[in-house]
Design a protein that fits this description.
It contains 10 helices and 10 strands. It is α+β, with helices and mostly antiparallel strands.
Length: 406
């Protein structure tokens, strides 16, 4: 009789299956461990790849940022003098050299072509946007005399046989800024603009012309017309050239003195600037009746630097270089002010603002920005003028084209 081996075989198979299940479970556990380890490793590597200055900022927009901001204080962090609180700027700059700056001829000279284009732009800006030229460029003196080629602001009312006609009144509609014309040109019909030559601001004169035939309005074709013309002011081309020279030379100073000074930006200052930026943008969002989450995409889109991050982290990353450049300028200007022991009183700030920006409402600026921030801004322009006054304007190199300001 043969022994019964079947129970033994079944037992062996069960043990094999059990061992297989154990092996499968172990493999599965190992796979899970490897996956978790890989995730942790990736997160660690990603975290380490994040620059230190971004690690404290979330990659989203926390709810607290969506709360409305009713006002924004531009002067926060500034002293009454317009300096940053706690900052001695001269301790953070090296090689500060702003006296006797040499400015190349091409970096301050305004060519005749540049002047012509500026005058053309002034005329187009009034025509297309309704914005008149700055009062600092207007000559309203009754002693001034219009010359051929002058840019002149006039108002006029035209009539044919004593009856006003459509399109003949410069004050029609809501136009309160007059029309800019070039004296002696063919900008208007017949010799209209030749007849204003020799007149002065404040004059009212009769200009008699004949409409061409044919004309765009058949009812006026070939008709004689009378225009009563008021001379408002002459755009002073010399003052426009002076203004352009000032802007061009100071752009050179900004690029070659202010922006090139060696500056060490303290971490606390860039943190303050970033915090103020976020608060300002939240305020802008509130003004647009949006949450900050809704407003943020437009900020990221508008930034010249496109970040791979999103949320607050993306915003800080996108504007990081801009904020650093701003901080360097703040420190450099303040260091120069400290070196010059410069302090502007409220009255001096208002006086200088009136000279530099005569079209601005100083009271409105003070209400918006606060006196500390306004002083900081005005002081930077004051410093640029100071550097310009002590600069060396290099002469034109021989062999170059003539024209422009010496």
């Amino acid at each position: 009789m043969k022994p019964n081996t079947k129970p033994n075989q079944m037992k062996t198979m069960q043990e094999v299956r059990k061992a297989q299940r154990v092996i499968i479970l172990c493999i599965a556990a190992l796979v899970v461990i490897l996956i978790v380890a890989a995730v942790i490793l990736i997160q660690t590597l990603n975290y380490r790849a994040i620059p230190d200055y971004l690690r404290s900022f979330p990659n989203n927009v926390p709810r607290r940022y969506d709360s409305a901001v009713a006002s924004y204080d531009y002067s926060e962090g500034l002293t009454e003098r317009g300096f940053w609180k706690g900052l001695t700027a001269v301790d953070h700059v090296t090689g500060l050299d702003f006296m006797g700056v040499e400015i190349p001829y091409d970096d301050y000279n305004i060519s005749d072509q540049e002047l012509e284009y500026a005058l053309y732009s002034i005329r187009q800006t009034l025509s297309e946007e309704g914005t008149p030229p700055s009062v600092k460029y207007r000559n309203e003196s009754p002693d001034a005399v219009i010359k051929s080629g002058d840019l002149v602001n006039i108002d006029y009312v035209g009539s044919v046989d004593g009856v006003e006609f459509s399109g003949g009144n410069s004050r029609a509609g809501d136009n309160e800024n007059g029309s800019l014309v070039n004296a002696g040109s063919e900008q208007f019909i017949d010799d209209f603009l030749t007849q204003i030559i020799g007149a002065s601001p404040g004059d009212t004169l009769d200009v008699n012309v004949t409409f061409p035939d044919p004309y765009q309005d058949p009812e006026l074709a070939g008709k004689e017309a009378l225009f009563v013309v008021d001379i408002n002011y002459i755009v002073d081309a010399d003052k426009v050239r002076e203004g352009l020279t000032r802007e061009k030379s100071q752009a050179y100073i900004n690029e070659n003195v202010i922006a090139t000074t060696d500056v060490i930006v303290p971490d606390w200052l860039i943190d303050q600037i970033q915090d103020k930026m976020i608060t300002m943008f939240r305020y802008f969002a509130t003004e647009q009746e949006q949450t900050f989450s809704e407003y943020l995409p437009s900020l990221l889109e508008a930034s010249e630097v496109k970040s791979k991050y999103s949320g607050i982290r993306g915003l800080i990353d996108s504007y990081r270089q801009s904020n650093l450049d701003t901080a360097r300028k703040y420190i450099t200007f303040q260091a120069i002010a400290e070196t010059l022991d410069l302090t502007l009183s409220d009255e001096e700030t208002e006086e200088y603002a009136a000279e530099r920006f005569p079209d601005a409402d100083f009271s409105s600026l003070a209400d918006t920005y606060g006196m500390p921030e306004l002083k900081r801004m005005i002081m930077s322009y004051y410093i640029l003028d100071h550097i310009s006054e002590h600069a060396v304007f290099l002469p034109r190199a021989t062999g170059t084209e003539q024209g422009g300001t010496p």
